[in-house]
Amino acid sequence: MTGKAAYYITTPIYYVNDSPHIGHAYTSLACDVLARFMRLDGREVFFLTGTDEHGQKVEKSAAAAGRDPKEFVDEVSERFRALTELMNYSNDDFIRTTEERHIRSCQELWRRIAANKSPKGRDNIYLDTYGGWYSVRDEAFYGEGELIKGADGEKMAPSGAPVEWVEEPSYFFRLEDWRERLLEYYSGGAVAPVSRHNEVESFVKGELFDLSISRTSFSWGIPVPGDDAHIMYVWLDALTNYITAAGFPDEDSETYKTFWPADLHMVGKDILRFHTVYWPAFLMAAGLEPPKRVFAHGWWTNEGEKISKSLGNVIDPADIVAHYGLDQVRYFLLREVPFGNDGDFSHRAMVARINSELANDFGNLAQRVLSMMHKNCDAQMPQPGDFTEADKELLSAAEGLIGTVRTELGDKQSFHEALTQIWALVRQANGYVAEQEPWVLRKTDPERMATVLYAAAECIRHLATICQPFMPESCAKMLDQLGVAADARDFTSLGRDGALVAGTALPKPEPVFPRFVDETPADG
Ligand code: ME8
């Protein structure tokens, strides 16, 4: 290991009962941007994603497809691996819960929880009989009081999923005994955004039921150590993936020592409780540290409607990437909605962002400055003269940007605010070019023109460097066109030492963000 500060970030592992959709793409995209940002900022990053392959839901989907579960999960898991390529994710590992390393890790975690006592001196795990409501779709147990009524008066989970009555022997986890420790954990700011913190805190302050953590009525799962008749509850199995990938149970390994506890679990708001109540409680019960932070983002609708298979409006990431362009989709998803809120995917909103912010604002800025340098400065980076106050103002705004973005992304996971701040500089740079009129200076004062173009180019270098995590391919093209060496693109190069070098040959510029002219939506 290198001794750099470490950053461990995870996505949820996705159920393999279905194909990837925009919700999966979104969670992982947010992680990818943070992972890339932290690498460029000098951190040693471990970015994990993967697939959740056990449980009744997957077993049922395999049966419905007439397939053996293992064969089925092998195939569907590949679709999620393909998503990481389609979306250009920079994940360092892709875990599958059917892997040997994970089975070993889950069984060891169980043993440790079972071997320890709860804070009230009781066994953390005990055997009893479960009688209650279970939703296969949510893979979750519900208390009678949590259920809602469906259209025909039938009982349903709060998510709208069907429930069935389950009665079987089960091991239970003594959740209630961990209440005080959990509340202490939340008070340290582990759950974000604040609305989710409040939600989970009030849940834990309420009545906490012991959690059923094993099943006996089906077999597609990890056997409970010492009692093969039981398989582990799929959420206990799935959540454990985060420590498996870090090397657990080998706690002396460099990977584990470097990366656990995770810096950030990124999840959707629907799986908040699993990540902020059950998971930290399991870890504490096993004598392990809980994750430093869990951020729960909002949900996407499609043209104002809930996304669902039955409505036939599921958004396939491959379709929108093919239609709008990869970096355009990456930008849109993180710019359109304040991270943490729900958002709506619409063709109109997508085209508006591509054309006004990417093509008009950023694309035109780069294209104008690069083509003027190409035509009027012998296709070389010009030599600037003395900087005026106006030049210095722009340059100092450019130099200050990384600090702002570091706070917005690193501390707050506020992708939308980071992009708003970046675009404030794009607009300032456009204003500067319009005011300085280098096309007029070309005839009246070519030396001043060279200074103006250089200052604008230097600002574009900052913008393209800082935007790399969001739009890696487009920013690489822009940095190529500015003649920035491949090893001068991390954030240490943002200081004066990394400034553009006069005389560097510049390739013929090509527009990086073209306007979107096809006005038809992706599906029509
Ligand atoms: O929950 N908008 O897996 P999953 C935004 N296997 N996000 C959405 C969304 C939407 N319309 N639909 C889904 C699981 N998501 C478990 C996780 S982790 C130990 C186990 C997001 O395949 C959702 O919020 O159902 C969540 O983060 C992920 O997709 C869930 O994927």
Question: Could you give the topology of this structure?
Answer:
Elements: E1 6-10, E2 14-15, H1 22-40, E3 44-52, H2 56-64, H3 69-86, E4 93-96, H4 100-115, E5 125-135, E6 140-142, E7 148-149, E8 155-156, E9 164-173, H5 179-187, E10 191-192, H6 194-205, E11 211-212, E12 214-215, E13 223-224, E14 227-232, H7 234-239, H8 241-244, H9 254-259, E15 264-268, H10 272-285, E16 294-297, E17 300-302, E18 305-306, H11 317-324, H12 326-335, E19 343-345, H13 347-376, H14 389-411, H15 415-436, H16 438-444, H17 446-467, H18 472-481
The structure holds ligand ME8.
Residues 12-15, 23-24, 26-27, 52, 238-239, 241, 267-268, 270-271, 299-300, 307 line the site of ligand ME8.
How would you summarize what this structure contains?
This protein is α/β, with parallel strands linked by helices and 524 residues long. Helix content is 47%, strand content 15%.
Care to describe what's here?
With 524 residues, the chain is an alpha/beta fold. It is built from 18 helices and 19 strands. Helix 1 (22-40) links the parallel strand 2 and strand 3. It is elongated and about 90 Å long. The strands form 5 sheets. Strands 1, 2, 3, 4, 10, 15 and 16 form a 7-stranded parallel β-sheet that branches. Strands 6-5-9-11 form a 4-stranded antiparallel β-sheet, with no helix packed on it. The chain has helices at residues 22-40, 56-64, 69-86, 100-115, 179-187, 194-205, 234-239, 241-244, 254-259, 272-285, 317-324, 326-335, 347-376, 389-411, 415-436, 438-444, 446-467, 472-481, and strands spanning 6-10, 14-15, 44-52, 93-96, 125-135, 140-142, 148-149, 155-156, 164-173, 191-192, 211-212, 214-215, 223-224, 227-232, 264-268, 294-297, 300-302, 305-306, 343-345. It binds ligand ME8. Ligand ME8 binds at residues 12-15, 23-24, 26-27, 52, 238-239, 241, 267-268, 270-271, 299-300, 307.
